[in-house]
Amino acid sequence: MTDTTSRPATRSSTPHFVSREPWDPYVADKLTGEQEKYYMAGQWKLMWWRFRRHRPAVISAAFLALMYLSILICEWVAPYDLHTRHGKYIFAPPQGVHLFHDGKLVGPFVYALKIGRDMDTLQRVYQPDHDRPQKLRFFCSGESYQFWGLVEGSFHFVCPPEDGAFFLLGTDRLGRDMLSRIVYAARVSLTIGIIGIVLSFTLALILGGLAGYYGGWVDLVVQRLTEILKSFPHLPLWLALSAALPVTWSPLLVYFGITLILALLDWPSLGRAVRSKLLSLREEDYALAAQMMGAKPARIIGRHLLPGFMSHLIASATLSIPSMILAETALSFLGLGLRPPITSWGVLLNEATDINVVAVNWWLMFPVVPVILVILAYQFMGDGMRDAADPYA
Predict the structure, then answer these.
(1) Contact between 373 and 306 (Cβ < 8 Å)
(2) β-pairing verdict for 137-147 and 151-159
(3) How confident is the model at residue 41 (pLDDT cuts 50, 70, 90)?
(4) pTM for the whole thing?
(5) pLDDT in tens, 252-265
(6) Residues 218, 279: contact at Cβ < 8 Å?
(7) Which domains does the chain have, with CATH numbers?
(8) What pLDDT is recorded for position 387?
């Protein structure tokens, strides 16, 4: 039998390290300050911190900011005026921008267009003249315009050559520059989404707030109205209401009429979200305390109840803007929305309804590109805002 009692105790083989750095008495305070900064942050700051972690949403928000900035200065961005016609360049194809000519750096330029005619189809044929490079001008004085219809101006970021033309996205059947028309059309299409969601958001807060706070017959009426509006297919209802607009209305009245129609048909979903939240929050202690202190219902709803879930409402409203832009584009494309001289992306696409024209002049479909990009950007940004507004994220 072996004696285990006399075996010496073995030391631990785990190495022990001692930091030789000088002790900083403020490290703990610094860590505590960072934690306190997080725990003491408000709802909107926490939402912003979470939103910044969503990279696609941040990129989409930056893209949309640039798009909305461009509608403020579209007269500067567009090389031509909205209605400028170039009778010599009807259905001209897009011109390529080049930097080098004959192996030498010339700078941004385009080649002049040689115009011919196909004797078989009797259509115009445009060929670049490689012997005539024409330099583009930047931050220059070009065609005059009325800035927002108020101030005379002629400044442009990009101007055509002095002795030539510049059609980056080609021209239409009247020789109008497609790039300039797309830039001007963004002002109408993007503002319809913003104005429409403001009206829809206001209706949802008022009607949904009243239904959720008071309940009873008010809730019954609002709920039945919501169900009626949601039971109709949206597209036929849009078409019917748009067709009911008088043809004698001015383009401005048609613009506001289309915006109002879209807002009236979009508020039910958001209104139900407001109602369901208020039904649960109106029984909270702080709401009852405000009611016992004599606060009016409007103050209780606006001051105490709505701020508690406003971030969720804004995220939901952001996801509703693309549907309004698509609705306006669809109505204008079908000829029942906005009509010339107002120009939107849907109006531009309406000019490309002839398949024969599109098969030959494919660049008339370019207005669909900003529609797709803006819709995708809103979807990504809306997803990021919805995740940021989630308190359990």
Answers:
(1) no
(2) antiparallel
(3) low
(4) 0.82
(5) 888 888 888 888 88
(6) no
(7) 79-173 (no CATH), 180-389 (1.10.3720.10)
(8) 82
